[in-house]
């Protein structure tokens, strides 16, 4: 595994809890002390020893050399989206399978798209290896949920809404629950949703709807662009409308609006005291580390899909709501990380298990929608992210 943040920490803990599949775990990241701290926690909690390494994953020859030294079956990329292509290059050079949870994003453009990674398909195929893209919660589980509904409940999915609610309270005026730079780039980008064969763009945070989330209560959720809309539109070609919604509290919106208005979320360089700085990177340096929020975060996350389409059993149009609810304090007690890291790290472990056990096989670059959802869904229930599905009286009105 590469990347020793909150998500990497959860994934390594969960792998160590499944030694039948993960017999030998190696953790490398830019800062080795962070790998060592995770290894220490894993040792204490599970008794499993993990080897640790320092690596700059932007350095393809160094990553290639490390992969050659360790000779793993799979490289799990839980560093940042900026490293995706470099790590895929190292996997190609060494002939090792690849997995990640977030699609590539160039450092100097807040633009995440699958096109750069999909362009690796033929090279991965020729090498006889596989890349599994987007094996977190969203992207990840939200797509598997949609494909499970398509396999077991609906012949077609006409409309799909993904609802991501974090009802957690960390007690800080403003903090992000995962990497602040990635999080802020995502929420300040224009909203886009899929409608009748194309993406429709609207201003960032302009559409809000109140929704009553089980386990959390009523929350405002905002229409946003999220990367799984691109792969879902491709792999559910009949989908007429696909939207992604995320909840934000009023305090979060207030702080973000001010930071944006004063220019602190800019990603172009500015000169300060004769030195070039990127305002958003500076902001990251002064905000709380997401990992530090674990001990104080209380409440639950509730993430799921509402899909409407023609029922498989021929009973006409039906609407289903499928979701997981995860408790921040339970996640922290189990792995030392809050639920946002937990809900991403567990599916990363499960995706890795799918590849290592051969439940999911392929040569080339694949999105999670392309495989049988059932073994993944079974493991969600067994490894801390149980899900439920219910039929709603009709399509959502918002
Ligand atoms: P963090 O910022 O907490 O951790 C990222 C880790 O990657 C850090 O340990 C960092 O090192 C390391 N890293 C950064 N650059 C390099 C590099 N060049 N070489 C080696 N290591 C590097 O992020 P998170 O744990 O919150 O997120 C990890 C990934 O998961 C991200 O890609 C994020 O977008 C994705 N994610 C996906 C979600 C989903 O549901 N699909 C949800 C949440 C996150 P250092 O400590 O030295 O900075």
TrEMBL record:
Q: Where is the Saccharopine dehydrogenase-like C-terminal domain?
A: 136-385
Could you tell me which InterPro entries the record lists for this protein? Answer: NAD(P)-bd_dom_sf, Sacchrp_dh-like_C, Sacchrp_dh_NADP-bd
Domain of life, source organism: Bacteria
Q: Which Gene3D superfamilies match?
A: Dihydrodipicolinate Reductase, domain 2, NAD(P)-binding Rossmann-like Domain
Q: Sorted alphabetically, which Pfam families does this protein's record hold?
A: Sacchrp_dh_C, Sacchrp_dh_NADP
Domain called Saccharopine dehydrogenase NADP binding: residue spans: 1-132
Q: What is this protein called?
A: Putative saccharopine dehydrogenase
Give the species this sequence originates from: Caenibius tardaugens NBRC 16725
